[in-house]
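Researcher: Sequence of Laccase follows. Predict its structure.
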Amino acid sequence: MEYSFLKTYNLFLLAVFFLVLVDTLALAKHAGITRHYKFNIQMQNVTRLCQTKNIVTVNGQFPGPRIIAREGDRLVIKVVNNVQYNVTIHWHGVRQLRSGWADGPAYIAQCPIQTGQSYVYNFSITGQRGTLFWHAHISWLRVTLYGPIVILPKKGVAYPFPQPFKEVPILFGEWWKADVEKIISQALQTGGAPNISDAYTINGLPGILYNCSANDTFKLKVKPGKTYLLRLVNAALNDELFFSIANHSLTVVEVDAVYVKQFKANTILITPGQTTNVLLKAKHFHPNATFLIAARPYATGPASFDNSTTTGILEYHQPSTNTKKSNKFPLLKPKLPIFNDTAFATSFVKKIRSLANAKFPANVPKKVDKHFFFTVGLGLNPCPQNQTCQGPNNTKLAASVNNISFVQPNVALLQSHYFNQSKGVYTTDFPVNPPFKFNYTGNPPNNMFVTTGTKVVMLPYNTSVELVMQDTSIISAESHPLHLHGFNFFVVGQGFGNYNSSKDPANFNLVDPAERNTVGVPSGGWVAIRFLADNPGVWFMHCHLEVHTSWGLKMAWMVMDGKGSKQKLPPPPADLPNC
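Model: Prediction complete. Tokens:
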């Protein structure tokens, strides 16, 4: 009797052990690992457009190194500053759940890393997979300090689309022959618009349409019949871009590291700060041609812009029997929309929808706790006494949210908030609505001057927010790609003209809206977004056209701690830089 009881008990223990083992192995399969990277910020000579220039780089690479992780991994990235400039790095689009100290925007999340100093960015990738990117987040240094972040699904988890034969990051950038730090510093001093770029680039290369750039051209070699995943990143400073490949259709499968309902497109629109994954299916035969890959600007404002085109070349691997060299093949060119084709831009954006299925739900806040209405646009500052300024009628150009042009503090907002030292740093009276009403997209008011200040919006933990952002025609209507740190949001509605709070919400999409971290406020129109403030900390929101950010089109959301231990911002790391 005792023997049989022991035997049964041992079998029971064995079964429990086996179940625990299976469970542990399953967890281990999905448990993240810690990945370490070292970023040495250093100067490097680089030649483009017949000119050699000393630029700021990570590890001497331009564009910078690729960061690869899986969903659930922890990243520990040590940044060592060996250059004359203050530096910070932002991990654009990473949720940074309770890790706001690692978010990166200078004087918002941290004081900058000074020359000779270092800082370790330590954060986890939670519930995200896809393409994001990292870039400098101080002054205009991101012009050369940027690189891709590739987040793979957890081990053993497939993409919700066919497994590609190969994955290729394609980063769009902007290149100036002159020193970009001097350009923006001079523009801010004189109050005029900064000089435009000399070229756009694909993976750091301008392409054959620019002087001296025949050898500085990105080449994509493909095999017939294979499918390629192109991870597109717009890291340009000031320009939204149209992108196309001659005679090839692209299938959009993801934006801003969120899977979307697939749709085919010959041309992609991508604003600075946005990422888009597309599938490229190579033709089943060897075409006796090469195909131009091209990107050029979508521009809606009156200001001059770099109206040039960056190109790469798509080549097919030729069978050894074909003796004809591919450079002897005709080069076919794509047809891109004209620079101000807002109709195309609008129809493209409307096609982007969340998967909104059981595996990848769209958790759109259905109930709204707080409504905000923000005007975003340009404005003016008076010219200082005894100075001549280059803005309209001897003024300085500015930009604002609800007519407040944000003044960068001298210490980091997150530290001030965490240690309750707000006095003299920021105030919490950022307006919920514009300070005065006017016909936002009609004739501008007589007074175009902005007010200045360091104001934030305070939100209790877990507040559901609806924010309508309205473009204005002050100086000029213009498309503004707005980026929110620390959150993804749902784009529930958009339209042209002035937002109508009694009519427009009836048309909101609360079922499968696009989920993003950067959205274009349409030129002469509005966009409505919703998000849940479930991430304690101080989160920057700004236009991703760098010139507008420099002029003050930025603000911050201060999300308070919740009651639970997992709802509070942990203390800062010991090596957090001082101002």
